[in-house]
Amino acid sequence: MLDALLVAGQTTSAELISIVRADEDRTAAALQRLLDLALVWEAPGGLRALTGVADAMRGMPGLVSGLRPSSPEPPDPEEVAARIAELSPAATALLHHVADHGGEGTTGAARRTVSPAEARTPAEELISRRLLVPREGDAVVLPGEVGLALRGGRTTTEPVDDVPALATAARDPALVARSAAGAAFDVVRRVELLLDHWGVRPPGVLRSGGLAVRDLKAVAAALHVDEPGAALVVELALSAGLVAEAAVADGTPSWLPTDEFDVWSGRPISERWARLVGGWLASSRVPSLVGSRDAAGKAWNALAPELSSGLAEEARRLALEVLAEVPEGEVLAVGTGVASVVQRIGWLRPRRPTVFSDLVAAALGEAAVLGVSGAGGLPPSGRRVAAGDLPGAAEAIDPHLPRPVDRVLLQADLTAVAPGPLETEVARRLHLLADVESRGGATVYRFTSGSLRRGFDAGWSAVEVRDFLTSVSQTPVPQPLEFLVDDVARTFGSVRVGHAEAFLRSDDEAALAALVHDPRARTLGLRLLAPTVAIATSPLDVLLPRLRELGAAPVVEAADGTVRVSRPDLHRASTRRGRRPAGAVEARQAAQVQAVATAIRAGDRARSSRPAAVEVTHPSAALAALREAIEAGSTVVIGYVDSHGATGERVVDPRRLDGGRLSAYDHRSDDVREFAVHRITAVRPA
Amino acid sequence: MTDGPLIVQSDKTLLLEVDHPSAAEARKAIAPFAELERSPEHIHTYRLTPLGLWNARAAGHDAEQVVDALLTWSRYAVPHALLVDVAETMGRYGRLRLEKHPVHGLVLASTDRPVLEEVLRAKKVAGMVGARIDDDTVAVHPSERGNLKQALLKLGWPAEDFAGYVDGEAHAIDLAEDGWSLRPYQREAAESFWDGGSGVVVLPCGAGKTIVGAASMAHARATTLILVTNTVSARQWKDELVARTSLTADEIGEYSGAVKEIRPVTIATYQVLTTRRKGVYPHLELLDARDWGLIVYDEVHLLPAPIFRMTADLQARRRLGLTATLVREDGREGEVFSLIGPKRYDAPWKDIEAQGWIAPADCVEVRVTLPDGERLAYATSDPDTRYRLASCTHAKIDVVRDLVRQHADQPTLVIGQYIDQLDEVAEMLDAPVIKGETPVKERQRLFNAFRSGEIGLLVVSKVANFSIDLPSAEVAIQVSGSFGSRQEEAQRLGRLLRPKSEGRSAHFYTIVSRDTVDAEFAQNRQRFLAEQGYAYRIVDAGDLQAEA
User: Fold this and answer.
1) Residue B413: which of B335, B520, B496, B328 has the closest Cα?
2) Residue B451 CB: number of other CB atoms within 10 A?
3) Residues A169-189: pLDDT tens digits?
4) pLDDT value at position B467?
5) In B67-82, which positions are buried (b, 16+ CB within 10 angstroms) versus exposed (e)?
6) Contact yes or no for A430/A472 (Cβ under 8 A)
7) Under DSSP, is residue B227 helix (H, G, I), strand (E, B) or coil?
8) What is the CA B194 to chain-centroid distance, rounded?
9) Which of A383, B20, B47, B531 sits at a 20 to 30 Å CA gap from A198?
């Protein structure tokens, strides 16, 4: 209506009504409403839209009809029709093309000012008859009146007051309710499973704020859903406030279940579901975009903060409202149903950007996953959701959800089957004792020695395990399971590990017992492990003097069991050589001669052995060779670069190798010297 | 929420509560498309697999029926994604059809052009098809019929084979039902096979697979090639056929390492067919020696890979596979599906047992404790010799003696993996032993003696695992197995599951060394037994002696 007015510019109400392809009475009523809203006013020359309205409506989405406003002084419709009739077939085709594609085009080489007679190309024909109006550059636009003429004097080719019908099919309402409840149960279970996982192994938060693709894949695998499905579950948890960003112990920001999650998981399934639905309805998140690429070609990550749209909420609400119009006993038809909803909403909200229809389609898909809708229809619970009554919805869905069970069936193949959702307490305990093999409406647990050991680790005893199994089982506990429990219990803890600073052993059991029970030894933390063995929590250097004080005469054992003689180590430094008193020239000369002789001899030895032995030059091999020499106490020749950069060979007996230094007896200097390992260029046996 | 007996899990397993009043009906409804994975006492687990769904499709069930069955019997709502997946998977079967074209011979046709385009673009298919006849049809080289089916299955678009079969050389074969008659399930199995054209019949050991084979031959009334696992079972087939059909001994030929006869009905061993000399299979021509109208594969799950390749060239002949289990340790179930055919008949063991055709078995695991010396030896040994050490402990031999004494008047088999151990047991029990090196003649003599009751105790190695009919065995004592193979367990149990006189139940003892890998493997095997629905007990060797 408003659209038509803008196309027509200033006009009379009769004319306006005539160009809208719709029932006249309804058009008149719509016009009256626009007048009441003061979006249209009766100017002296006829009806006009408010100036602002035109600006607002000429924004990005453009006019619904795709027509441009008429030229300021439009010719008569008859004349326009006559001009169109004169056109060549090529020009008519071009005109229709422009009209169908937004009423704008470019002319290229066409001349702007030509008379109909001179026109050579179809474009020129159109311009000359003012069926296209040139604008800046080589752009041309189709004036409104021409568009109207092409569409038979109306603004649209289709009637605008026909509400697009919804494609529906009959379906048993009970089935709708059941499949919705099934989906609802599934989604609650998945969210719970997801957060259980994340509580133990939280995924990191990307620097951009989302969830890594790898983590999403892991979620998809764990939940048995595809990746978009996993993204939806993750996003639902977020919008329900069950997951949030927090730093874990080592400081990395991670996605963690919130404390709300603990409250939530204690609630009945229907309430948990209502909470998820509530979060979803009010959220601006767009999970459907996860995995698609943005304008820059970058894939969207789940939980990324940018992944929201102001329109998402409206799209969901509208989708549910439209869905609620489908009468009970009918559902959206398979295939065409969703498209028809999208179309209807497109008609209801004509001026939304094109992404809006994607959002609506996504909202319908999400509603199905959430169990708000089922099999394409709204069950009573879904209708309450559409009406905004979440507690009522929870109440309505409750009878359709599986009842929690507190019993399982134990079987001889070491499985336990819970034929429904288990009560939280039982589930938690069973989870400890057995591994989950299959999830769904029912849960299959498998007992293995590993899973039972986990139970024992958590402090259960074999009797407790057996009592628990008997208490939760509907059937007698199968014998193989009992055997498994006993087997695990028998081996569990048969080897014990602990921490001690020192041990005491004695063949004299009485003496050891006396020592352990001596009140004066209390501070030593002695504990008797066996009649002949005790341990102490005090280190040896505290323990030894104390024991001596207590009258014992302990002997220290080395790691290999040999007795170590306890004698304080005597510290000695090696006598420094070469510091002769000044003036002893002869002595120095003699020493020099000797040094030269030693060096020559060492050199001789180096030379004589050179060709026979294999020289190792690779650093790691050299280290190995040096270690070997230390072990064997043998003599090797090393190539060495001294601190002046000069290379030489030394005949040495390696003694110790650590901290990047080799200490070795140097035959030439007749002293123990330190060599930097990185300066050793080669090693070969002497 | 309804009160159905079935729970559909989102990981495509179906849990069936056995004690539910409508469990039987539900089982009937889901059996055609779901594969029974395990059947312990309370809840049976079925699994939906693409192969299973395609098997169902081949048997004429459609997705609507499957979905309907799931929705009808399910206690809780069925996950929507699963239903969609079922419909999609089933929709894939039969989009492509192999047909006989009056002009072009064998063709691959499709009503779904994109699918045809997709598979034609696949590299694997490229060499197998010929010229495009029209948009929806493409010629297929007749020699590639089997390979093409295999390739298409791998691509996820299994083709339906409508190209028909050659009739083969006619040969009159009738069942000689004098004093016995086909059991209902045997008749059903043979008929389902015949209606389906080619395919596999799954029946437990002892349920009379040979008879199903004979009945199918009577349907075909044509020359038949029977492929079996070994010579002993070849002789058994021969005896059985002579007894049960109008065939005479002269009409049946044996084609094995020792004898090479080609007669209207020829029984060949896998081994002789797969013998290779200088890179060629010299006995392959047997497959073309006559115009066979039917080829029977005994123990399909053991079919060696070269036979698969040969089978690919035999697609124009009717093929019947007989087996106790479709589970192949090598995971080649898909090849059985595409080359021999879909499953045509299946009956869970427990059902047949309940009908009284196979003896109920009492499965007992006897645990022995390794003596301290052996325990130390075990702990310090290499991982690859551990199993042998644990299996061959002397403690087991005493238990065997006790068990044999307990069942003194019942025919007993002692089964084992390691020859040394078997020799030792045989010596101690003073019983004959059958192992790989025992000549066929001697084997047969011993088996016959055992069958007739002359010998009450036989020690056998794994050569006895397959197809040796010892219906009189009432007690089996397993002293060692081959690393927990499920298939082996099925075979060994099968030895015992033949109908017993006076309705006595069979006993199946497994002797296991406690706290060793032996026990771990035993757990695997026993899981299989429990999954098959046999309640098994565990007793301590000490308690056993006290009992005795």
Assistant:
1) B496
2) 16
3) 777 787 788 778 888 888 888
4) 46
5) bebbbebbbbbbbbbb
6) yes
7) strand
8) 19
9) B47
Instruction: State residue A61's pLDDT score.
Output: 43
Contact call for A411 and B79, based on CB within 8 A: no
User: Residue A619: inside a domain, yes or no?
Assistant: yes
Helices of type H across A203-308? 213-223, 227-239, 259-265, 269-282
Degrees, nearest 5: CA angle B161-B162-B166: 100
* Total residue count of chain B as it appears in this document: 548
Nearest to B322 by CA among B203, B165, B183, B197: B203
Distance CA A63, CA A46 (A): 21
Domain ranges of chain B: 6-91, 96-161, 184-351, 359-547
Looking at residue A161, its amino acid is D
Contact assessment for residue A309 and residue A235, using Cβ atoms and an 8 Å cutoff: no
CA atoms within 13 Å, Cβ hemisphere of B276: 5
- CB contact under 8 Å between B42 and A417, yes or no, is yes
Number of H helices, E strands in chain A: 26, 23
A349 in the same domain as A212 = yes
Residue A286 and residue A536: Cα distance in Å, rounded? 63
Q: Is B359-547 a CATH 3.40.50.300 domain? A: yes
Please check whether residue B10 touches A, CB under 8 A. Answer: yes
- B104 touching A (Cβ < 8 Å): no
Looking at the fold, whether A81 and A220 belong to one and the same domain comes out as no
Residues 6+ apart with CB under 8 A from A545: none
Q: CB pairs below 8 Å between A and B: how many? A: 115
Q: What's the predicted TM-score (pTM) here?
A: 0.63
Asked if B76 reaches chain A (Cβ–Cβ under 8 Å), the answer is yes
Q: Could you tell me which of A405, A403, A380, A388 has the C-alpha nearest to residue A185? A: A403
Residues in chain B, pLDDT under 50: 467
SS3 of residue A60 by DSSP: coil
In chain B, the residue whose alpha carbon lies closest to the alpha carbon of A412 is B530
* Residue A59: per-residue pLDDT: 46
What separation, in Å, do the N-terminal and C-terminal C-alpha atoms of chain B show?
A: 53
**For residue A642, what are the CA distances in angstroms to A79, A594, A603, B64, B504?**
107, 22, 17, 88, 94
Selecting from B43, B75, B365 the residue whose C-beta is nearest the C-beta of A411 gives B43
B125, B155 Cβ separation under 8 angstroms: yes
> How far does the CA of residue B522 sit from the closest CA of chain A (Å)?
12
Residue ranges of chain A with per-residue pLDDT less than 50: 59-62
User: Which residues lie below 8 Å from residue A169, measured CB to CB, with a gap of 6+?
Assistant: A330, A331, A332, A333, A334, A337, A376
B174-219 residue pLDDT tens: 888 777 888 888 888 888 888 877 888 888 766 788 889 999 998 8
Q: How many angstroms away from the CA of B327 is the closest CA of chain A?
A: 18
Tell me which amino acid residue A236 is. Answer: L
- Neighbour tally for B523: CB within 10 Å: 19
| Cα separations in angstroms, A353 against A60, A314, A576, B512 | 8, 13, 92, 73
Superfamily of domain B184-351: P-loop containing nucleotide triphosphate hydrolases (3.40.50.300)
Closest-CA residue to A46 (of A17, A21, A23): A17
Contact flag A402-B75 (C-beta cutoff 8 Å) = yes
Which residues make beta-bridge pairs with B38? B45
Q: Angle at CA A664, nearest 5°, toward A663 and A669?
A: 120
Q: How far is A481 from chain B (nearest CA, A)?
A: 10
Euclidean distance between CA atoms A155 and A159, whole angstroms: 9
Is the same domain home to A382 and A287?
A: yes
pLDDT in tens, B119-142: 888 887 877 888 888 888 888 887
Residue A18, classed as helix, strand or coil, is helix
Q: What angle do CA A4, A6, A8 make, to 5 degrees?
A: 70
